[in-house]
Amino acid sequence: MKKHDKNNNTHFYGFAKDMLDRIAQNLNFSVSLFEVADETTGHRLENGSWTGMIGTLIKKEADLALGELTINYERSSVIDFTKPFMNMGISILFKRPKQDPPKLFSFLQPFHDRIWMCMIGAYAFVSVYTFAVARVSPYEWKNPHACNPDSDTLENEFTMLNSFWFAMGSLMLQGSEVAPRASSTRIISGVWSFFTLILISSYTANLAAFLTITRMSTPIQNADDLSKQTAIKYGCQYGGSTYRFFQKAKIPTYEKMWNFMSQNPDVFVNKSQMGIAKVKGGKYAYLMESTPLRYQVSKNCDLMEVGGELDSKGYGIGLPKNSPYRDIISNEILRLSESQVLLRMYNEWWDVSQPKCEQREDSVSSTNAAQLGMDNLGGVFVFLVGGFALALTIAILEFCVNAVVSSKSDRQTLCSGLAEECKFSVNCCGPSKKPVRLMKHKISKKLLKGYGGRSHPRGSDSFT
Predict the structure, then answer these.
(1) Are residues 120 and 92 in the same domain?
(2) What is the CATH number of the domain that holds 16?
(3) For the chain, what is the mean pLDDT?
(4) How does 226-260 read in b/e, with b if 16+ C-beta sit within 10 Å?
(5) What pLDDT shows up at residue 371?
(6) Element (H, E) at 353
């Protein structure tokens, strides 16, 4: 990179400059830097000549060339390279998307839509199921008048409205004044309470993540996404190593990208800075080498790297063919690399500028909270269904036992007793009160004592 002082003198600075100064110091030679006229690394023209730094080396107007000079076969055929001092690959530079604004109903996001629908369905089913089982079970019918043990009617608290209220109270972890009495309804209550405990705990845990995580929607995630769309244009530096990579590509994805770029010449740029400026303008992705890309990302918080590296190659110092300095400089590069001097230089230039962008959403966007779906919570629904089956089995047993005992006490056949109980139980629109004779299995001891232990009169209403 370069900058100008007050006297308009050009000064170069950067990682490559620091490395060259260290090499010159260790090998005891001086360096005079200048910039080539077209300010490019160089590419081959149709007449076979080269432009940029490579053309300058071929003409032997310089002893070495330093910059974003990628080592490849085409360049190695006309100039020499030292050992690579840095490895990198082609990556995608893209403008960081804006954060998604919080949604009005974001509190619904911890659960998948299918879970919400299943939960609403389970709530409605439990309410109706509790009402039906409570109506079948004889132990849910009780005397509504505590001071009158000889009342001729019994009442069931689990009306349709109370059943919905009972299920809602359990779902909201608040409870209700309605309490189950029979074993079957208590099993339903326990299973439903366990179901709501797991569901509410999972919702609470996931809600915190959804409310604290800021989401960003990136339209592309990798080169394959880029090749499958045309809304976002993409290109690279004309004539550079990235240009040659796509031009000679045989991989279908990269061939498709090259066909798109070659048919839209306006996507190519002459300098990387022009490509970076187009990216900042939006709706454009710039294909460039990962090392300068990551430096730009660290300096510009509105830029980001998309996907991984598309290939692997290295930067080297270019020299004219058969240069006597190649082996000497290559050995020094290897020594600086092994002594971790180059690594410390890299950290100074790429990490020092990082703190100002540390608070970006990099860590946030990569830690998206996943919605809980049936794969996560399907087991608790299975548990709920199993509990319902057990409660229904017990309710049927209670119903049958009650019918047998009631038919004996009322001197009825078992079939007629079952038919009478079934007729009353299945009448869901019927009253929540019923005569004692359909529920009590024993004659009141008080009344028996009043008749001296004799059988009740046939015409007595109390025993009808």
Answers:
(1) no
(2) 3.40.190.10
(3) 80
(4) bbeeeeebbbbbbbbbbbbbbeebeeebbebbbeb
(5) 62
(6) none
* Whether 200 and 221 share a structural domain: no
Q: Give pLDDT tens digits for 194-232.
A: 999 988 888 888 877 776 665 556 788 888 988 988 889
CA distances for 442 relative to 110, 395, 454, angstroms: 55, 21, 14
**pTM above 0.70?**
no
Is there a contact between 291 and 86 (Cβ–Cβ < 8 Å)? yes
Coil, strand, or helix at residue 454? Answer: coil
Phi/psi of residue 155, each to 5°?
-125, 145
Residues 249 and 344 in one domain: yes
Q: Which two tokens stand for residue 443?
A: 């004659």
Any domain includes 78: yes
DSSP string, 373-427: -HHHHHHHHHHHHHHHHHHHHHHHHHHHHHHHHHHHHTT--HHHHHHHHHHHHS-
Specify the pLDDT at position 355.
Answer: 47
Residues 349-380: tens digit of each pLDDT: 886 444 455 444 444 344 455 666 666 567 77
Q: What is the DSSP letter of 99?
A: B
**In 206-339, which ranges are E strands?**
233-235, 284-289, 303-306, 313-315, 318-319
**Average confidence (pLDDT) over 137-141:** 83
State the CB neighbour count (10 A cutoff) for residue 310: 21
Percent of the chain with pLDDT over 70: 78
Does residue 281 sit in helix, strand or coil? helix
The closest alpha carbon to 388, from 188, 194, 199, 196, belongs to: 188
The structure tokens listed for 282 are 């939006």
CB atoms within 10 A of CB 434: 18
- Could you read off the pLDDT of 293-336 as tens digits, one per residue? 888 888 888 898 888 888 888 899 999 999 999 999 999 999 99
Range of the domain at 426: 106-211+373-463
Does residue 146 carry a pLDDT above 90?
no
Are 142 and 193 within one domain?
Answer: yes
Q: Do 53 and 96 share a domain, yes or no?
A: no
What one-letter code names the amino acid at 2?
A: K
- According to DSSP, the β-strands at 153-156 and 141-142 are antiparallel
Tokens of 236: 């690279």
